[in-house]
């Protein structure tokens, strides 16, 4: 258990640096790495990815608060947009966690691997959405929020990969889109964590130190380290060639995606 906890701390440190350095959600790193760790530890195969997704969203509860505060201090959070999209986000995230609980680990692995390919290819190409319209009406923004929430819950991320392009597409400036996406990550983490917790309760094959589909030792190890190392990554971002690092990270995502697909066969 001590060796495993040290590994969770190391994972949290790595995820924190990458989050600060590249501006990516920790879930992109945490979910696949926890999947490999939980497999090596002999946790029940049927629930390995459920545990990785639930634990990832629980870590975002803590990391999103510091990110949100930092962006809000710079006036980069569009609160009217946040309050309009939040109901859909919460509904979609709860729905996504329920859907995930009904799906097999193999299906979730394939789904997450495809998501890694999507993000990796976009990073390699340097794709940026072109703004073309304004935010939709009440029903439209509820639908968009629900879609972001469902997908974020299924892949264990804070939603920035989807909410930033959506907001930019709706003519929100990139600076404010990133800040608002940081705020959106908090209700995703709250709803997703509760959803995975509730849907995992009563699963008798899980170890005693799991709260629903949240692995408590992994959660503690990751947040202890990531909170400390994210500022380090942010400082490095001003000193290192981030564009080149993003391409290297994109290749890593593609490799991890292939590795996850390989485990299916």
Automatic annotation (TrEMBL):
It is found in: Cell membrane; Membrane. It comes from the Bacteria. It holds the Pfam family TauE. The keyword Cytoplasm does not apply. One of its GO terms (cellular component) is plasma membrane. The keyword Transit peptide does not apply. InterPro entries: TM_pro_TauE-like. The chain crosses the membrane at residues 7-35, 47-69, 81-101, 107-124, 136-157, 177-198, 205-228, 248-264. Keywords: Cell membrane, Membrane, Transmembrane, Transmembrane helix. It is a multi-pass membrane protein. Belongs to the 4-toluene sulfonate uptake permease (TSUP) (TC 2.A.102) family. This is Probable membrane transporter protein. The lineage of its organism: Bacteria, Pseudomonadati, Thermodesulfobacteriota, Desulfovibrionia, Desulfovibrionales.
